[in-house]
């Protein structure tokens, strides 16, 4: 059985990662130079435009990084978060499951109550009416 995804997925992922690093380094350079020029300019900033180039490059670099490292981040998040969610569901549901999640146990039959005369179902010891058919147990 082959892995799901594209046939050259690892190559594509590698190119996304390299492009993300290159674009993010360029964005950092443009943002640093543009911000430094605005802050330290004596009269008029001349490289203010670099901020307007750096911000979109930062967004593009973030998108490329998500494409390159998104699978690894999703696997890490699932590995860290799902055991906690499973334990929480077990705690909330006392181990019996909640919304078809978690462990489910068969409902135990009552052990000490009377049988119904009409349907033969065993009921709780303090029951006055049958849980199954509703007939009076007294």
Give the N-terminus to C-terminus distance in angstroms: 64 Å
The run of helices and strands is HH
Overall geometry comes to elongated
- Major sheet summary line: none
Low-confidence stretches: none
What amount of the residues lies in strands?
Answer: under 5%
Structure class: mainly alpha
Radius of gyration (Å): 32 Å
Share of helical residues: 55-70%
Overall average pLDDT: 84
Number of strands: 0
Number of helices: 2
User: How many domain regions?
Assistant: 2
List the helices and strands and how they pair.
Blueprint: H1 9-40, H2 49-92
Helix pairs in contact: 1-2
Task: Give a structural overview.
- This protein is mainly α.
- It has 2 domains: 84 residues; 31 residues, no CATH class.
- It is 55% helix and 0% strand.
- The chain contains 2 helices and no strands.
- The longest helix has 44 residues.
- The protein is elongated, with a radius of gyration of 32 Å.
- The two termini are 64 Å apart.
Compact overview of the structure:
This is Zinc ribbon domain-containing protein. The protein is mainly α and 138 residues long. It is 55% helix and 0% strand.
What keywords describe this structure?
single chain; 0% strand; 55% helix; 138 residues; mainly alpha
């Amino acid at each position: 059985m082959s892995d799901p995804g594209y046939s050259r997925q690892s190559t594509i992922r590698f190119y996304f990662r390299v492009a993300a690093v290159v674009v993010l380094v360029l964005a950092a350079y443009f943002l640093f130079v543009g911000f430094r020029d605005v802050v330290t300019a004596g009269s008029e900033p001349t490289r203010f435009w670099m901020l307007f180039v750096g911000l979109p490059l930062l967004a593009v670099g973030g998108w490329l990084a998500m494409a390159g490292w998104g699978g690894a981040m999703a696997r890490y998040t699932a590995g860290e978060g799902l055991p906690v969610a499973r334990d929480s569901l077990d705690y909330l549901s006392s181990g019996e499951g909640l919304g078809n999640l978690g462990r489910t146990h068969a409902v135990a039959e009552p052990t000490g109550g009377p049988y119904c005369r009409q349907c033969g179902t065993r009921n709780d010891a303090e029951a006055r009416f049958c849980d199954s058919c509703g007939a009076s147990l007294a």
